[in-house]
Amino acid sequence: MITLYGFGAGFGLPEISPFVTKTEVQLKMAGLAYRKEKAMPPASPKGQLPYIEDEAERIADSTFIRAHIEGKYGFDFDAPLSLQARAQAWAFERMIEHHVYWALVGARWVDSENFAKGPAHFFDAVPEHLREKLREDAQFRVAENYLLSGLGRHAPDEDIDLAVRSLFALSVQLGDKPYLMGDTPCGTDATAFGALAGILTPYFASPLRERAEQFGNLTTYVDRMMLQYYPDFAWAPQQQAA
């Protein structure tokens, strides 16, 4: 059986990491049995989560895990799509992972209140005399990566405006369809769902979340995906109570 290593539930989400969420949803899409274990990034072959163990193989990075599933198990996540639609799906996935994701990072890690409420607790088990220094170092490294991503070079309202342009593109692509590319979910839906749920979770308040909630088709899309792939997770009541 495949073992998926991730962070686990938290922040009002069934899985903290949008990339682990992506892989978990794709495992569900492929109908593959798996078990899930908690891990931290240093345990991964690439120093990041998710990674999987499948018999004697250890594969890290969600995109390479998808390739492993397709290659070993013969599952085509984009089976209904034309060649052009496959190319479009890949382009949207790159936009989500290299733009929308960094907006999520900014809202969760760079915002001081959200950092204290969320990521700072990753270090709760660290000895008290080291805890605050490790928190500061981690936040600094993430903020530095946010700067390198490009979004962090702008004023707070400007980086949100740029992120919203990508959300607008996703909203237009989705339209009134149930899934991004049509009537059936494809691999990129797992990517979009992970990032959008991370933005929309009621656990964090942010201008990014406020702007994202204005796209009604994206919020109902996340609700639909959550019900389909995490039916036992209490997501809809949280949204209604927010």
From TrEMBL:
SUPFAM superfamilies: GST C-terminal domain-like, Thioredoxin-like. Residues 165-225 form the Metaxin glutathione S-transferase domain. Signal peptide: none annotated. It holds the Pfam family GST_C_6. This is Glutathione S-transferase family protein. It comes from the Bacteria. It comes from Bradyrhizobium sediminis. Transmembrane segments: none annotated.
